[in-house]
Amino acid sequence: MSRPGSGGKRRARRAVAAPASRAAGGSGGAGGAWGARPGRPRMRRRTFLLVIVIAGMIFSIQSFVYVERNLRPPMMNIAKIRVKQVATQAINKAITEQVAQRSNSEKLIDWKMNGNGKISGFMLNYAEHMSITSQTINTVQNTLNEMKGIPEHIPIGHALNSAIISSFGPKVPVKFEPVGAVKVDLSTRQKDAGINMILVEVYIRIVAEVTIIIPFDTEPELVETDIPISYLLVVGDVPMYYYDGTGRPVGESAAEAPNISVPLGQGTGEGVTTSPGSGGNAGSGPSNEDLDHSGPATEVPAEGSGNSADPEIPPGETGNSAGE
Hints:
This protein has 324 residues and is α+β, with helices and mostly antiparallel strands. It has helices spanning 6-35, 39-101, 126-147, and strands spanning 109-113, 119-124, 152-155, 171-194, 197-213, 218-235, 241-243, 249-251, 260-263, 271-274, 281-282.
């Protein structure tokens, strides 16, 4: 048995719920009709992103090909110059510090004396030679091993040959690796320092082979440097005077150079005498310039001719040898 007034409340609730359900159904239908439309902008965004990715890949490939063809050679040349500069500076610094610590550099050369106590020659001390060579090899090898872990960076603008953008662009890392053994040679070279004086230079020649590594290529390179470690001046006997290239004496109490007679021919008895600073003069006979060719020429009659000169006939008279 229902309470009075309960049926009316139920009918009122149903009446209110019916329009609400209709409104919900209408909105749902409209929502379903409009819910399929937002899928098109999403497809457009995906297509746009795909196009951008493809264009970026094509641009990256073209850039890589351009860098490979045009920037690799100049970048490698710049890397070689930079690596040689850095390696040479490090080697010179290490060897200079090592030489500065040695106080027996005078033992590098053994001098040879003659009977008069004068220097007649010299030779390198083999023991000191080997000691310096081994220490130099170890120093150079350790220096290169320490430097290989420190990369150098070169702006890519250097490879474009442009003064404006030479310091711009991404920096390319450059490394090098020591390859093979370090070659060290201790030698000497001489230089004229005056009259009978020679300046002897003792130097170390270092040759190291390294491999230069850049992102695009690797190439081997030789690092060479000469480091002087000692200078020695050899002074000989200096004469009071000497003769220069023209034969003239130079110095104090200089005597004239002796005359030299050069024969002109065999059996002629004549010669040309030369002295420094003068031309050739006739030694025993007159020269061509001393002969006088201004007078008339004298004819000498040939044998068998009709006329002959008779010394007993006075002047003005002639004799006919053919008639007599």
